[in-house]
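Homework help board

Subject: predicted structure for assignment chain

Our instructor gave us this sequence and asked us to write out the predicted structure in token form, then describe one feature. I got the tokens but I'm not sure how to describe them. Can anyone check?
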Amino acid sequence: MTALELHPAVLGGSAFARAAMAGEPSVASFYAARPRSREEWRAESARVAARFSGAQWLEALAPALERNGVAHDRLRRVADGGGVLVTTGQQPGLFGGPAYTWIKAMSALALADAIEDATGRPAAALFWAATDDTDFAEGASTWVAGPEGAMQLTVPLPAGGEGRMVAEVPLDAGIDRLVRQLAAASGSTVDAEVLAAAAAAYHPGATVGGAYVSLLRALLGPLGIPVLDAAHPAVRRAMDPTMRDALRHGGDIDRDLERCRSALDEAGFTAQVAHVDGLSLVFEDSAEKKARVPLAAAAGRADMAPTASLGPNVLLRPIAERAILPTIDYVGGPGEIAYFAQTTAVAAAMGVPAPIILPRWSVTIVEPHVRRLLDRLDCEPDDFADPHAPERRAARRAVPAGVRTELDGLRVALTEAAERLQAATAEARASAWGATPVPPDTVVAGFVRQVEHRIERLERRFEAAAAKSSGETMRDLAILRGALAPGGVRQERALNLIPVFARHGADVLRLLHEGARPYARRSLGLDDTTDEGPPDVGVSAAGVGAR
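My token output:
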């Protein structure tokens, strides 16, 4: 496998997510405290494991999980040994979705390894594939980096797919064309099995959710990460008591969520998940679609809804997960960290412990051909956080040296002339200059700003002309933007990694796993060293740290 660079980064997010990531006291009360030492993690893992008797939970969920392989073996070891799980998840995205799908999984695996090492209790990572999601559009597109830059691949919504779980939405014959485009974006491959796995998962007749689960299992399973199909009836049956309990507490939940929203407002923040008046947090499936149960009907549906017909919304899902799995913590991103504040309120209303959330790792992958282009243009990956900075830098470099020297000379001459004029004005003001008042210094300063602006406009004209004459530079920038910021979005939030896996081998995932290990130990409070990477990746004892 050709060497890749991993560039750890600090996660962004909303103002509230950033405050939570920084562990600010103003947001601490919105989160469950989490362990901060080896001893505290041992105690917490014992409490989590004690909620489950033997391996019954695994037997109940077995139909929704892999039946054999490395992932099954590690999960079985957790179930038989009174272990715990580090979970993460995502709604299905085309061909696995953005890079953060895989980064989340590797973060969870690194955290599970660290927890097992710290506690001596078996631990495993588990990926919750939210195939019961109905937001088809959110995962219908993905970006791939090609020889001309970024290209977006999109699956159209089939007739009758609106409002249906993606586990039920079929892929039509058009998926074959997208698979070919995915392969073309991969270029020269060293791991044809990765593309074969994508083609085997995504084919006409498969469902959006089913294809996603199949691909993730093919790539994550060998690393010991099981993938749970959330729409499977076994999962719905296991969650059923929690769903009915949430319906019976519907009024309490609604009131506590309103209190949470008010508290967030008072603290100067906005709730991540908007309140929908009159609706519970529980969905009920029907032949046509799934819809949230009205609060007015909640008590009745708690008693009458068919088994396995109920499911959670985003705020209730972490609580439902913790009820059916020995989850010690969930690994999430800025959006999830933000909405877990509201999940804490839901847990309080239901009288259950609030789930703990840990931030995922953040990283940018730089392939060798990308590094060569970066070096040629004297850029770094972080430069692409500004949508226009790389073009401006390249344009400045393209302007002939003589022109640049004269433009700089104009600025120097303007500054020197302005200083002389201001000195002369001050001298005139100090002397008797007849009855005519001396213009104030603001007049001179205003004139200087106007001329500086004109020089800047002139400079941009030269830069634009130079940029147009350098087609190779613009092509290089397009390739870099496609690899590092497709669609103007950070790589991890947009770029599909299947072509990267195909070019460099599926061991890229193992590389990410190794890269996430220092982050995991810092996040758990187990390592005081200053390994390379963002300093704010931990969750404080009373709040949540960086995602």
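Reply (TA_rk): Your tokens look well-formed. For the description, you could write something like this. The longest helix spans residues 401-430. That's the kind of observation they're looking for.
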